[in-house]
Amino acid sequence: MPPLSILIWLPAACGVLGAIIPAVAARGAARGDSAAARSGWSLPGILAVAGSLAALGLAIAYIADYAPSIGGLRHVTDVVWISELGIHYKLGVDGLNVFLVGLTTLLFAAAVLAVNLRSETPAPERPGLFYFHLMLAESAVLGAFLAQDLALFVAFFDLMLIPFYFLIGGWGRDTVPPTRVKATLKLVIYTLVGSLLMLAAAIATGVLASQRGGGHITFVLSSLQAMPLGRGSQEWIFLLFAAAFLVKMPAFPLHGWMPDGYRAMPIEVLMVFSGVLSKVGAYGFLRIVLPLYPQAAAHFQTLMLVIALASILYGSLLAFTHTDARLIAGYSSMAQLGFITLGIFSLNPQGAQGSLLQMVNHGLVVAAVLFIIALLARRAGGSEDLRDMGGIAFRAPLLASLFLIVALATLAMPGSSNFVGEFLILLGVFKAKLVIAIIAFTGVVMASVYALRLFIRAMHNRVGPRVHTREISVRDGAVLVPLVGVILFLALYPQLPLRRSEGSVKAAVLSAQSYTRPLRATAGRPAPPTIRLLPRGRHGAPLTASSGGAR
Amino acid sequence: MIALATAHLKGPHVDFAGLSPLLALLGGAVIVLLVGLIGSRWVRGQAVPALTLAVLGTALGLTIWQWNAEKSIVSGALRIDDLALVLGLILIGGAACAVLLAWRSLAAREAGHGEFHALLLTSLGGMWLLASAQNTVMVFVGLELLSIPLYVMCATELRREHSLESGLKYLIIGSVGSATLLYGLAMIYGATGATDFTAIAAGLEHGGLAGDPLTLTGIALCLAGLSFKASVAPFHQWTPDVYEGAPTAVTAFMAVATKVAALGVFLRFFDVALFAARPSWAPAVAVLATVTILVGNVGALGQSSLKRMLAYSSVAQAGYMLAGIVVADRLGAQALVFYLAVYLPMNMAAFAVIVARERETGLGDSIRAVAGLGRDRPLLAWPLTISMLALAGIPATAGFIGKFYLIDATVSGGYTWLGVIIVIGSMISLGYYLPVIAAVWMREAPAGEAETDAPLGPADAPAPAGALPALAGGSPELDDEDVPEEDEQGAQERLAATRQPEVVFVALLAGAATIFFGIVPQPLFDLVHGAGRALGVS
Questions:
Q1: Full-prediction pTM beyond 0.95?
Q2: By C-alpha distance, which of B139, B93, B89 is closest to B262?
Q3: Beta strands B71-73 and B78-80: pairing type?
Q4: Gap between the Cα atoms of A223 and B518, Å rounded
Q5: How close does chain B come to A54, measured CA to CA in Å?
Q6: Distance (Å, rounded) from C-alpha A207 to C-alpha B247?
Q7: Could you tell me where the beta strands, DSSP code E, fall in B69-191?
Q8: What is the pLDDT along chain A (551 residues), one digit of tens a residue?
Q9: Residue A318 · residue A289 · CB < 8 Å
Q10: Which listed residue, of A51, A370, A485, B320, carries a Cα 20 to 30 Å from A2's Cα?
Q11: What kind and span of H or E run contains A484?
Q12: Are residues B184 and B224 in contact, defined by beta-carbon separation less than 8 angstroms?
């Protein structure tokens, strides 16, 4: 297998080539061959497709290569990047990230393909720059998923936002109240504020851990895990990390950037943004927060569960009151991310595994839904408002059935992989907090309301005033059908991700889980689980003996 | 008799090798000044800046030659160690960029090329003295040698009111700062009876003078005086006005080199001489840093003049760097010097783009002058973008590593809250760095702007600074050169503006360096490693 660095940097390299070659070539050639650019295929576009497909191929190879039995990190690259600061360029694949890497490469390939195959909307202006930013974003997201060093993770986490700033501001849509520039500024400031807090927290983790451990400063995750922080430090650091990840998702009180940002983004960019970037936050909880700050995670478990629950309820409610189809997708992902958070902070393996599965599922589903919304808008005279749609299924049975599959997956129909994911999540929460699980069940019901409402009002009902229905074109099908294919595949075979992620997820949750129950049993005194498992009498025997002797 | 006298009078030993960079700078200033008297226009316009660069190159070479020299020279007045040499390198780099930016500038022409460049070299000599000063007298001499040429240089665009205002303002406020510092130094001398840094340190430590009211007053006054120079809030009020009014090449030089020198002496004075009094000054400096970070970042919000924005941003950056002094350990010193090293390319890239756009458009340093740059001038747009991202501390730029190192140092030094303040400052700073990027890439070029390929003339845009009505009392050089062909001059200037390879070169070089050191920072770490050791703090 090639090293992971190739997977990470291949897209960016293709993007750079695509940006440079035409700029250099244009010096010699006269201008005016914009006809070639308008037809959709341009050199940067072709390079981007090649790069993203190659990355997808590599990711599939890593998934195939990852044997569930071995566990632990595979294909590790470990180079010292900055020795003074103890930062390593350490990458690795395990059950936690291998499927998210697959999801990332798949969605980016779909998005790049979708931009290249645009038939009715114009191709992006300045394609070289557009694909450069999109490919840089793919590299940064892959880097964030694969990084096994805290500082490296933070760097990639911050970096991945910058291309989106350019993509939204340069190629987005102006909506009426906020312009795209304002919307992108809001989005980036919101999310970067979170990331900067995380930067401070990450540095504090490295420094404090090395001071406690007495060793040289390091940010490598496995070494940090071996030098746990004190409980007080864990708690404030946990809160900073949680803020960063919750903004990114977005979760209920921190979602202010979401509506404007969603409306301003080009739809292909939104596909990857909604499908992948939100997952980095959830992944961060599993990769970093639970293993490094287990005591704090157990301490704030209820708080996080309540935030997750609020996201589910709030997102679902708004998803079935809004009529802007994009915002329905946006608020529904907020609710879905709420479920994912819920599963992670159930702090047991079932819930966390369900969350991991649900991350992949939701990424696939939301990208497909958003792409379909773009198709629907084109058939409804360019409007993405549900009130302007209706009756689109009339002459488009294929599109309707593809949409139906996606909609049913969104509402977690039994038989879909989403059902398995949500089931595991709720199972996990049931074990942890019964009341929260019962309330969360209403979220499942509400999901079917908004998913079916979106489907029915767009595809059935009375034909909208400006609707011209027609079947899905081959070009659009080339993007959508593979996505739906993967959704169907996972519905048939959800064991693939479940079995391969089992070991890693257990390892990630284990230490945090160990702090949950003993905490309650010994009233605030955290004790490792091994002690709890010992027979009570024998463990307490020396204590009683000595006190008896004193008497 | 005579033989007896000479035997008695033993001349002091002067280590000319250690002094050689300073001698090169000051000697070069004299040569440049004399060459500038030659009447030929070519010599004045081209040969003088080239000669200045040669002088800087010589000083650079001599600095590198002195590498690893750990010695005190001139009876302990100057200390030639890695800290001084690293700061010297940064200073010389900043001056070289400023010379390139000023090559075709109005400022150099109006002031006379020879004078302008001689002043620049003299000022640089003062900075070099400051960076290596080991004696309070040297601190003051260096500070004055730095400041007085700068006062003049700020006012070199003789026909622009703002430039004169800037020079006068800097003169008055700078003098107040110098006086305050001098008063403080005198008090410390009064308390400890020493001017030498090591003697002061010994006096404070063993003489139990660290808590003495006289010492403390002296420290407070020194802190205020140096804060004026480093534009630390609340002594920063001159910064935006002076930065905005001064010719942009001079602003670039001030922004980078003055800050390096001022923070360099700050570091040495507080972490060496006043180290024993650290419990009394560290909280005060920490509060100053906090105030500076907040004031600078909030002040920069919503500025439409790029130079003003960068002025406030430099105030904020000074606040970040003060954090390295507060912790007063080796890590803090290294982080500070590291940040100063990356501060040079980050700012130079931005200033080079401003210089270029000032000449190409009639919009001055307004943010509108860079609107639509991404489409029209990618070679300028990228450096500006990189500079803004680096100043904001985005990964893959040197600014990220610099900030990382500083926060690392504050947390290690037990000032975690100051690290959080730095982060909060960075958050606020996104509010003014990102809109510049938005202007560059996401807005159209303003209508009515004189494009490079559009017909040029004084009518289609506000007149450039050079075509402003002549004020009374211009220099004789101006009278015979510029005034007779005033209208043509404006058009020629615009045409020439499209060919300013040296400015674009500075922008690209600085931008590339910012990215390079963001990805491969190891060379810089090696560079600052010795600087931390030189201070002798743990």
A1: no
A2: B139
A3: antiparallel
A4: 25
A5: 24
A6: 44
A7: 71-73, 78-80
A8: 788 899 999 999 999 998 888 777 776 554 444 444 445 578 888 899 999 999 999 999 998 888 776 667 888 889 999 888 889 999 999 888 899 999 999 999 999 999 988 877 777 888 888 999 999 999 999 999 999 999 999 999 999 989 999 999 888 887 767 788 888 888 888 888 888 889 999 999 999 888 887 778 889 988 888 888 888 889 999 999 999 999 988 888 888 888 888 888 889 999 999 999 989 999 999 999 999 999 999 999 999 999 999 999 999 999 888 888 889 999 999 999 999 999 999 998 889 999 999 999 999 999 999 999 998 888 888 888 888 888 888 888 899 999 999 999 988 888 888 999 999 999 999 888 888 889 988 888 888 888 888 898 888 888 877 888 888 888 888 999 999 999 999 999 888 888 888 888 888 888 888 887 644 444 444 444 443 333 333 343 333 333 333 33
A9: no
A10: A485
A11: helix A474-492
A12: yes
* A82: helix, strand or coil: strand
Under 8 Å between Cβ of A329 and A373? yes
Task: Extract the tokens encoding B489.
Answer: 């001059």
How far is the C-alpha of B387 from the C-alpha of B515, rounded, in Å? 9
Q: How many residues does chain A have?
A: 551
Q: How is residue A416 annotated by DSSP? A: B
Q: Find where tokens 């997102």 sit.
A: A315
Contact B96, B74 (CB under 8 A): no
What CA–CA distance (Å, rounded) separates B35 from B122?
16
Which residue in the block uniquely carries the two structure tokens 């992989």? A417
Chain-centroid distance, C-alpha B234:
19
For residues B58 and B521, what is the distance between their CA atoms, to the nearest angstrom? 26
Round to whole Å and give the CA distance between A109 and B511: 31
Three-state SS at A81: strand
DSSP string, A493-539: -THHHHHHHHHHHHHHHHHHHHTHHHHHHTTT----HHHHHS-HHHH
CB B132 within 8 A of CB B261: no
The answer to whether A189 contacts B430, with C-beta atoms less than 8 Å apart, is yes
Q: How high is the ipTM of this complex? A: 0.86
| Torsion sign across C-alpha atoms A40, A44, A48, A51 | positive
- A207 in contact with chain B, both atoms CB, cutoff 8 A: yes
